[in-house]
# Entry
Amino acid sequence: MTVHRVAVLALDGVTPLDLAIPTQIFNARPETPYEMTLCALDAQVNTTAGFALVAGGGLEQVRAADTVVVPGFEPVTRPPEAVLAALAEARGRGRRVVSICTGAFALAAAGLLDGLHATTHWKYIEELERDFPAVTVDRDVLYVDEGDVLTSAGVCCGIDLCLHIVRRDLERGSPTRSPAAWSPPRTGTADRPSTCPPRFRWPAKPRSPPRGDGPCSTLRSHSRCRCSPATPACRSAPSSAGSPRRPARPR
# Structure
């Protein structure tokens, strides 16, 4: 299996949860080709949680990576020019660039989202639209896949995006394990927040059968569902926009 180098670029003020998602998912495992390095402009990075991190890699690892992931950070100020140049160089060499949450602001500042669809945390949607008019910002999606430029909505939507990337990579590379075991897709719309992924099976464990014959309609009922892939009512309907929809926010 060819090694795929992933650089997770932590910017100053990185959100720890956003950072934990790609570092966990792209950590080296026998089933995947990934070799992950935590990178930063400086060796020490401040987080939004009041503690600092020590990065093992720098911008050289970002430039050499096959995939660069930028987790969310606050405040969403313009990153240093050296960081933007490294992102632009990586993309210019045909590398894949990914953002989680407000990490989209870094990609946009580097010019990597111009002419593309993208998304970010819902609280910053209007700010991204205002500051980067060349970007078509998609609202109410979990993530946007533009080929080798991918962006996710806020926080935990980064899990959906990273698992989508793993599934896509493994399907391309003839994996030894089924991609479905790694990445059950999560979908939903404002009127149908969550449905059972067609290829995902919950662990065999005695549970009460779901009430009624209809599909799961809430995250709570989805967590208890035992529907099989053969259950037509629980097959996820594809989004008309081509990106998985996220549940409507509570009013």
Remarks:
- The longest strand covers residues 4-9.
- The helical segments are 16-25, 59-64, 81-92, 104-109, 125-131, 157-172, 219-223.
- Confidence is low (pLDDT under 50) at residues 174-183, 188-241.
- The chain is about 25% helix and 15% strand.
